[in-house]
Amino acid sequence: MKVQKLFILLTFSILVIAGCSRKDTTTLNNSGNSGESTNPNVNMENPTKVDMSLLDYFLPDGSKAHFKGEGNEFAELDIDFAQPYEHYVIVHENNGGALTRYIYKIGEDEVTTISYDVVENEQDFPTLDEINKMKPAGVYLRQPFEVGTTFDKWEIVETGVTVETPYQTFNDAFVIESKEKDAINRKYFAKGVGEVKRESIMKLENGEEYVVTSTLESVSQP
């Protein structure tokens, strides 16, 4: 039990207090953005360069994905995708214990994590002005998608990988990896979807491995 609790902390960044039940839906309320759809801080005479192909690593606006979990109770995931503003993607991820909102910005050669916070179902999206005042929390993805590319604690370690999931088999995926003292975390990305699998492996004192996986099981699109 001690090992499992420790591994949950290593694997999932934000959890709520014990006793929370799985929230069956992640209904998103975007009524607070007042219809904003473009970034008012962009200088149109010298706009920020953006590689819109990086959007291929997120599901389209209004999509939902379910991930089958194995290894612990927080590995099962329900994820919603929204693009309320140009160049921004907002993802709500429900692991049964917490609903976490991630805000990503699509840039020239990388996707920046603007923020990640535990939120309630009915909380509005922040306005563009609020987002622009946020301090970036890190880098989610960086090009080129080739072995050796690094960002934050992650490194691309494999390309051209075949990933079998309950949803479908993905070809030509790439794998990013981060290493902790006694654990390895991996994410598998496929063009047109984004993350299709997460894998965390912890080495136990007896030499065995404790593995937790979240694997794409279903996708619904508007």
Give the topology:
Blueprint lengths: L1 H10 L52 E7 L6 E9 L2 E7 L4 E8 L3 E9 L9 H5 L5 E5 L7 E2 L2 E11 L4 E11 L3 E8 L3 E10 L5 E12 L2
Antiparallel strand pairs: 1-2, 1-12, 2-3, 3-4, 4-5, 5-6, 7-8, 8-9, 9-10, 10-11, 11-12
Query: What is the helical fraction, as a range of percent?
Result: under 10%
Order of helices and strands: HEEEEEHEEEEEEE
Major sheet characteristics:
12 strands, antiparallel
Task: Tell me the fraction of residues in β-strands, as a range.
Answer: 35-45%
The strands making up the biggest β-sheet line up spatially as 6-5-4-3-2-1-12-11-10-9-8-7
CATH overall fold name: YmcC-like fold
Unreliable spans: 1-26, 31-47
Tally of DSSP β-strands: 12
Mean pLDDT: 84
Through-space gap between termini: 41 Å
CATH architecture annotation name = Beta Barrel
Contiguous helical run count: 2
Any idea of the CATH class? Answer: Mainly Beta
**How many domains make up the coordinates?**
1
| Shape type | globular
